[in-house]
Amino acid sequence: MNTSPAPAVETSAIAQALPVVRFDQAGRGTLRSLSFALAPGSFHWLTGGPGKSALLRLMALAEPPAQGVVQLFGRDLASLSRREAVAIRGRIGAVLAPLAFIDHWTVWQNAAIGPKVSGRSPDEFAREIDAVLRWLGLAKRAAAAPGDLTAAERFRLALARAAAGRPELLLIDAPPDGLEPVERERIVKAVHELNAAGAAVLMVADQAMLGGQANLRLHEGRAILTEAASG
C-alpha cells in the first residue's frame, strides 16, 4: 500500500472560528429541517439515510436548498453572487456518485481539471498532479482513459481530482460496492491523510460508527451529530 504523505492542502480554514458548514433548519426533498455545524479540520462519517448523497450535493453547491439557511465558510449560499459561488466551489473537493469523468481526456487531465479551471497554468500545477497521482497509486495509469480503469482506480481518480484543488472541505460519497478490503482500506487511509493535512472531511460510511470518530447520522430526514469519543 502506498504510504506517501498526502499532498498539503490550504489550511486557512483551520484558523477560522466559523464552521466550514452550517445548516439551520435547511433541507430539500426528503431532507428537512437539518441543523448542524462542522468545524474546520474535523472528520465526520455520514451515516443513516436515505438522503446522504443528496446532502453532499447540497454542500457541494450542486443543488440549492429548498428551505432554511445553508452557510459555507461563513457565507449564506442564498446571498452569493455567481462569482462568489465559483470561489466557494473552489474551496471544496467533492467525490459524488455517480462518478463522472471526461472520457476522452486522460487520467492526468481529469485529475488536473480543478487547477485548470481555476486559471492556473500547467507549469504551476503539473508537479502537484504528478504527486497526487503517485500518492494514490495512479502514476502508471496517467495516460490511460478513465474507461480503462477498475472501479477502485476510478474512485481513486475522483479522489485525486478532488484533492488536486487543495480543498478546505472534502465531501466524499461511499466507495462502490464489491471493492476488495485492501482497496477500501487504501481509500479510507488516503482520506484520513487529507484530513490530517488540513481539510475538513464528511464521508459516507458503510457502518454506523467507525473508530469512535465523530458521526453525522441522518434519521427520518433529520441530522443527528455525535462528536468523537475522547481518550
Return residue spans where pLDDT drops below 50 for at least 5 consecutive residues.
10-16
**Major sheet description:** 6 strands, mixed
Based on CA inertia axes, which overall geometry fits? globular
Q: Which radius of gyration do the C-alpha atoms yield?
A: 17 Å
Strand percentage lies at: 15-25%
Question: In words, what does this structure look like?
Answer:
The chain has 231 residues and is α/β, with parallel strands linked by helices. Helix content is 30%, strand content 23%. It has seven helices and ten strands. The chain has helices at 52-59, 82-89, 107-111, 113-117, 122-135, 151-164, 181-196, and strands at 21-28, 31-38, 43-48, 67-72, 75-76, 92-95, 169-172, 200-204, 215-219, 222-226. The strands form two sheets. A six-stranded mixed sheet has the order 6-7-8-3-9-10, with helices on both faces. The chain has a four-stranded antiparallel sheet with strand order 2-1-4-5, covered by helices on one side. A hairpin with a 2-residue loop joins strand 9 (215-219) and strand 10 (222-226). Helix 5 packs across helix 6 (151-164) and helix 6 runs parallel beside helix 7. The chain is globular and about 45 Å long. The two termini are 28 Å apart. Residues 10-16 have low confidence and may be disordered.
